[in-house]
Design goal:
Blueprint: E1 2-7, H1 10-16, E2 22-28, H2 31-34, H3 40-52, E3 56-63, H4 70-77, H5 79-83, E4 87-91, H6 94-101, E5 108-110, E6 112-122, E7 125-128, H7 146-149, H8 176-187
Length: about 210
């Protein structure tokens, strides 16, 4: 499982850095490197663009995994350059941004948008498999999540727009409910297609989400 990200537009990054002229850049050596949004090459490219903009880049680093406990150690190793900056530009998923901001008092600015947590089904190809909704129905849908497989997030079968197994929202994508039907049919469990699923209870996972494991 990987955090799938895309880089914000440079105009948006510039806007976030308005009034902040000394920048330390942090990349991530795991997910953001793999998606080519925050690895070494992307960090150095951002460094060049910020310098062309007139910003002073006090330093940069690519943390092996920006969201784990080694983040604090990596930041401490760059303490001098960080202290010379007045903000940190983070090229990682939102988890990395959050982790870094818990150690740094100065502004921590995200350079990426986190799209989803993805499962790699073939090299370089990821798809969302779980929306972390707190009400799992995979037992009734043959292990295929309708919230993520269906563009409309329908819980009770396909809409009227499915056509030859394709989705009307994006005709290049398979209809999620067609996939569910085919798998249930192969399992001899098509009776589950007639089972009514109540509307999603969005109170099941109130935010902010927390859990304590005893």
């Amino acid at each position: 499982m990987k955090s799938i990200t895309k880089q914000k537009t440079f105009d948006e990054i510039k806007e976030q850095l308005d009034g902040l002229d000394r920048v330390f850049i942090v990349g991530c050596g795991t997910c953001a490197t793999m998606t080519k949004t925050g690895g070494r090459d992307e960090v150095l490219g951002m460094k060049d663009r910020l310098q062309e903009l007139g910003k002073m880049v006090t330093g940069w680093t690519v943390i092996p995994t920006a969201c784990d406990e080694m983040t604090e150690v990596a930041l401490r190793e760059n303490n001098g350059a960080i202290n010379s900056s007045n903000c940190i530009l983070v090229m990682s998923c939102a988890l990395g941004v959050h982790k870094i901001s818990s150690y740094i008092e100065r502004p921590v600015i995200p350079a990426l948008d986190t799209l989803f947590i993805g499962l790699e089904d073939e090299p370089g190809n990821f798809h969302e498999v779980c929306a972390q909704c707190g009400q799992c129905v995979l037992g009734q849908t043959a292990g295929i999540c309708p919230l993520t497989a269906c563009h409309k997030g329908l819980l009770n079968g396909p809409c009227g727009g499915t056509n030859k197994g394709k989705c009307e929202v994006d005709i290049t994508k398979d209809c999620g409910w067609t996939l569910i039907y085919q798998r249930l049919e192969a399992q001899g469990r098509l009776d589950l297609m007639r089972k009514y699923q109540p509307p999603k209870n969005y109170q099941a996972t109130p935010r902010p989400r927390t859990i304590k494991i005893a």
